[in-house]
Design a protein that fits this description.
heterodimer; A: about 270 residues; alpha+beta; B: alpha+beta; three-stranded mixed beta sheet
């Protein structure tokens, strides 16, 4: 074994040990998609770390070391980014990485440790950042819910809507944009959405943080912005039923279509326009 | 001794005031359901019995379930003329002379209704046979709901009235 090969072996060993300190969820998220490699150069006390991967088209990617920003770069139109942080003191460092869009919305921050070796460039490649998810703060039952955002272009986004657990999958377009519509009548109250992206090659991003939204009570059963005789007709169709097929008729979401639902409708009545 | 009597009198006065206040307060916060039944009627006579309510705060929906002695009276009609209900719910008003039941349910959009002597409907009754008739309200199912967007229950009371049918 040559001296260079022995050194490479030490670097890889160092990296392997370092990853042992990574929080479990982060380690799981990157273990299947991030590759590590190292290149050895001449003498000195600093080394370099290179990050390559995908975010979404034209994303602003920020790299932090120990919580401080050490570099930014822009992803290209195909979502790919490539950034090398140079002259890092040898030793174990924690790096974090996220991307944001023009509205300041960020992907999940992923973190991993690197044992930087003097005169070496360590490369983290195959990074796949999570999607950015946008949902309205609230919808009025029984409105449909649109979940949208950006992710790596030409890939597949999966969303998970809780507490009515609904999974939806869609592709991203050339600009990385994606959207899904939940037409199910959701229960009243708090819900959240998470999402992940799967690249064509099978790499999977980390799940996004849950984004909360609220489903509010409404008597506008046909979603025409009015509460009138049409809504009354829809209510009457299911009146007296338990767990009606037309879920929207159960305005207060207590499984019974009864006088309470009628009372709520009377409260929000706008008239016979 | 005099002192003990004085203290007892004060306590009694306080107690009476407390009961008086709560009685007044309950009257102010409780709805009242009334069937204006005559005290007596003759056999085969047709009687119109108005259903009225007092509601202390704004309500927008109400339903009433009554039962009656089917061997003594029968319902021939329920009139909606002059009702505060602008909308009636499915199958209402209705009656069943075999089961001895009456059902009225409906409401009005915001601002709803409040105050006294609010007319719901008129129950038209035919006296079939001599006897003492009581039209009972099913208090477990009957309710008046607030115009608050939540359908909050407004507590209510109903006093059963007895009608005597003479031969």
């Amino acid at each position: 074994m040559t001296g260079k090969a022995r050194l490479l072996g030490l670097i890889v060993l160092g990296l392997t040990l370092s990853i042992g300190f990574v929080p479990t969820n982060v380690a799981q998220a990157i273990s299947s998609s991030v590759d590590l490699s190292a290149t050895i150069a001449g003498g000195g006390t600093t080394g370099n770390v290179k990050f390559t991967g995908d975010a979404f088209p034209n994303a602003l990617v920020t790299i932090l070391m120990g919580g401080s920003v050490v570099g930014t770069t822009s992803a290209n139109g195909l979502s790919a980014f490539n950034k090398t942080i140079i002259n890092i003191n040898a030793g174990v460092h924690t790096f974090s990485l996220y991307a944001q869009n023009g509205q300041g919305k960020k992907t999940v921050t992923i973190s991993f440790n690197a044992n930087v070796i003097a005169n070496a460039t360590i490369t983290f490649s195959g990074i796949l950042l999570s999607p950015i998810v946008t949902v309205p703060d609230s919808i009025k039952r029984p409105e449909s819910l649109t979940e949208s955002g950006v992710a790596k272009q030409a890939s597949t986004v999966t969303t998970f809507t809780h507490s009515d657990t609904i999974t939806k999958q869609t592709g991203t377009d050339g600009g990385g944009n994606w959207a899904v519509t939940i037409n199910d009548v959701l229960h009243l109250g708090s819900h959240n959405v998470t999402a992940l992206v799967i690249a064509n090659g099978g790499a999977q991003s980390e799940l996004t943080n849950p984004i909360d939204f609220l489903v509010k009570i409404s008597a506008d059963l046909n979603i025409d912005t009015r509460v009138n005789l049409t809504d009354f007709s829809i209510l009457m169709f299911s009146y007296g039923q338990n767990n009606p097929g037309a879920k929207a008729s159960d305005i207060n979401d207590d499984t019974h279509v009864d006088l309470i639902d009628f009372s709520v409708m009377m409260f929000y009545w706008t008239g016979l326009q | 001794m005099k002192r003990a009597v004085l203290i007892a009198s004060i306590l009694l006065l306080l107690l009476a005031s407390w009961f008086g206040y709560h009685s007044w307060h309950n009257r102010k916060t409780t709805a009242l359901i009334s069937l204006e039944t005559p005290k007596s009627a003759e056999q085969n006579q047709t009687i119109e019995i108005p259903l009225t309510i007092f509601v202390p705060s704004s309500a927008n929906a109400a339903e009433f379930y009554f039962s009656f002695p089917k061997d003594l009276i029968e319902i021939t009609d329920i009139k909606k003329d002059g009702s505060i209900f602008q909308l009636w719910v499915k199958d209402s008003p209705s009656f069943d002379n075999n089961a001895g039941t009456i059902y009225l349910a409906g409401g009005s959009p915001t601002p709803g209704f409040s105050g006294g002597n609010l007319h719901i409907g008129t129950i038209v009754v035919k006296a079939k046979a001599p006897g003492r008739v009581q039209i009972q309200l099913n208090t477990a199912k009957s309710r008046i709901l607030a115009n608050d967007g939540l359908g909050t229950l407004i507590p209510s009371t109903y006093q059963t009235v007895t009608m005597s049918i003479q031969p």
